[in-house]
Fold this protein.
Amino acid sequence: MTEAGVSALIGLGGNLGAVAERFAAAQAALGSLGRVRGRAPDFWSLPLGPEQPIFRNSALWLETKLPARQLLTALHKIESDQGRQRDLRWGPRTLDLDLLYYGDAISYDSNCRIPHPHVRERAFALGPAAVLAPEHRDPEAGRCLAALYQETRRDIMEALTSKAELRAFRKRCTGRLAFVPTMGALHEGHLSLVRQARELGDHVLVSIFVNPLQFGPQEDLARYPRDPEGDRRKLLELGVDGLFEIESPAMYGAHHETRIVQERLPRHLCGLSRSGHFEGVMTVVAKLLLLASPDVMLLGRKDFQQTVVLQRMITDLDFPVELHIAPTTREADGLALSSRNAYLSPEQRAQACCLSQALFAGERAFAAGETDPRALERLMAAELAQARELVVEYCTLVDPNTLDARSGAARAGDVALVAGRLGKTRLIDNRLLGAVADPRLPDPLAENP
Ligand code: AMP
């Protein structure tokens, strides 16, 4: 015990209701029991018990003169003030406060076991404590928390909801950081990028931000699909280290007016119907790259023009990041996975596969020796015409570097691209001529004939 008291590390957890607000209330209440020296960032973790929402976890460092038993009683009181019912083991809860460490004390008192009996096995308890107090020594293990956390299965994901938290996360990354920017409503296509990120980096960061700057006034910003809980669960299951989720006012601030522009590339293809779209994409990705400083960023080839525009921006502006372009994940019938596929009615969904079928037809014709780009385009257009409701926006063969329509003979590496609308839903797809096949999802019908 010092003048100021004992350093107690307290674990916070919860998965019912407004947990972030409960953590803040718990912190305020603990402030009356001593001096709060710091609070760890929040982490997401998968529940151990029956099916229930994912958990939010944190840790708090309290300097207190209260004896350990009294401190524990006070923690229980705060829990019940915050609506905690002590019933189901591993069940859902509003607020859970655990006394993880009490200075360097060891206690075998069954009502007040110190250190907390499971702290070293559970990343959701040890992780936040180790970030908050890396040098704190576990008196039983005789090692500091940072060293112990190095050896734990890291099945927790940092909940990054501000720029400051993202920067702090970056500073703590000790190895290569791989970054996957997304707009959420995650599907297998996104998840394939995340799996590749695991291979390419020691740490994986995913961002979910529905960027208003890249949506036109008539576009689907307001109804863009969102599934924060489902997204977090999927990313936790893949062992992602940090998830950056931010809303527009915090990302841009009230007076934002800067845009990144490009002379030529955004004037092709999607840029013709989506004025300002690529400026919005470049601006947000530039901000994300500056905030996160990843070593490698992963993008899907599905958005081919986006990869070309962003590679140009990275080269032109000397962003110190490597770009990794991942193949397109497709449904068994060839349809490229997209968050927007969720908008399609069953009839539209049945027609949507014409986009990929048109591209495959173009690819086959090229492989069979057809090199006249206009003939390839006509052939693809004929396939698209099979989709009754489809309003074709473009169907073209381009040079992959300039995005200009291919003149002269088509060659391997050229890109065939299609875009169109089924009702209000805009779909795009592309294939590199002479390239290897994209990954497909297993055909459920084939598994259950
Ligand atoms: P979005 O959330 O639509 O902004 O997409 C985030 C990232 O996932 C982008 O780099 C996309 O190109 C990529 N992506 C989207 N759909 C697919 C897919 N079907 N296969 C592979 N990557 C994809």
Summary: The chain has three domains: 6-153, 157-326, 343-446. Residues 182-183, 189-190, 192-193, 299-300, 302-303, 326, 328-329, 336-339 surround adenosine monophosphate (CB under 6 Å). Residues 362 and 376 are 6 Å apart (CA to CA).
